[in-house]
Amino acid sequence: MIVVKEARIEDAEVISNFQVAMAMETESFALEKDKVSKGVKAVFDDKTKGRYFVATAEGRVIGSLMITYEWSDWRNQWVWWIQSVYVEKEYRGKKVFTKMYQTIKDSVEKEDTVAGIRLYVDLTNLH
After folding, report:
1. Which of 40, 50, 97, 116 has its CA at 20 to 30 Å from residue 18's CA atom?
2. Alpha carbon distance 36, 15 (integer Å)
């Protein structure tokens, strides 16, 4: 069973590992793990930077995403951007992102100050 929840600081290490793996998989780019770890921790230290959500299964984190905020003057509300999405290879195609997205959508629907969600998708990403 897959459970999605807001990430805690204890999840920072696995989120950092996911970001390093994603950069290598998607762009063949080797990120500096120490710099990524500091960047992930900065989000936990300063909620204005964003929030992480994690998907768990079998007692471990199998996926994550980050929400960042954009102010919309058109709507006089926030828009949440989904970014930094990663799902472990063995769980891809098993609706993990769908469950993460639904959790975000449910949260947005409860927030009076949030107009909606945005996500840019790379159409060449077939995984």
Report:
1. 116
2. 9
Element (H or E) spanning 100, and its range?
Answer: helix 96-110
- pLDDT value of position 123: 72
Report DSSP state, residue 49: S
Q: State pLDDT tens for residues 66-120.
A: 999 999 999 999 999 999 999 999 999 999 999 999 999 999 999 999 999 999 8
- Helix/strand/coil for 72: strand
Q: Which residue is associated with the tokens 């950092």?
A: 16
Global pTM exceeds 0.70: yes
CA pair distance 75, 92, nearest whole angstrom = 35
Alpha-carbon gap, residue 19 to 79, rounded angstroms:
23
Nearest to 18 by CA among 48, 51, 54, 50: 54
E strand or H helix that includes residue 57: strand 51-57
Mean pLDDT of the chain: 95
